[in-house]
Design goal:
Structural class: alpha/beta
Number of strands: 7
Distance between the termini: 18 Å
Number of helices: 12
Shape: globular
Largest sheet: 7 strands, mixed
Strand content: 15-25%
Radius of gyration: 19 Å
Number of domains: 2
CATH architecture of the largest domain: 3-Layer(aba) Sandwich
CATH topology of the largest domain: Rossmann fold
CATH class of the largest domain: Alpha Beta
Strand order of the largest sheet: 3-2-1-4-5-7-6
Order of helices and strands: EHEHEHEHHHHHHHEHEHE
Amino acid sequence: MRGAETVIDMTVGAGGHAEALLEAGVTRVVGVDRDPEALALAGERLARFGDRFVPVRARFSEVPRIAEEASVRAVEGTLFDLGVSSLHLDRPDRGFSYRTEGPLDMRMGPDGPTAADLVATLPEEELARVIFEYGEERASRRIARAIVRAREREPIETTAQLARIVAASAPGRRRGPHPARRTFQALRIAVNEEVEELTVSLPQAVGILASGGRIAAVSYHSIEDRIVKRAFLGDERLEVLTKKPVRPSEREMRRNRRARSAKLRAARRAA
């Protein structure tokens, strides 16, 4: 995307990718995030670029509005860096991490129901479906049953409460990742409607790509990666540039542990 006129960074976060793009010579970066705190941080970081950085608060599914607010008809590039950012994981008060105590929130923005709301209201069968489909958790039914029983005794309002409940329902897991990891992932995806948002957004983003423009997506779990792969392969307007997803190098993984599961897919608009 070097030398491009306009690139949309659909997950601007604290502005790291946008900064790299601007430093590489991109004329203008439209930075999108549903989190006003992230946009404020990105704005501070990128203030030196003046009006070359355009912040827009929006969800993935609002690409037409994003383009209108940024006054662009076509862009040379669009970037999606999916999943949850360090900005959220490292803030206990945002409620994303099973490793720290915090309110059971998990919202990427300030609107909508929290994870605590879902845990309190979803029927057991629906809760098991969410944990199985979005967390790919084999013990979803057992975990959902444990959550429903626990909420009958007292409200489940913190990350630590939920992590203990999930861990107790999977006592055989002595090694490997924390037993609550998949359940937390599932609830985060459900709270933020990530599957629905991404599915709608990808074809919208292709629709505003200029001829020869590129779209790239970095995913961190198989659910996201499947959506991106199918969207790119199934869109007749696109020429897929990555036959297989690009994985981080050993050096990059040593520098950033959270990059170890990243998969990059890219495509170019041919028509």
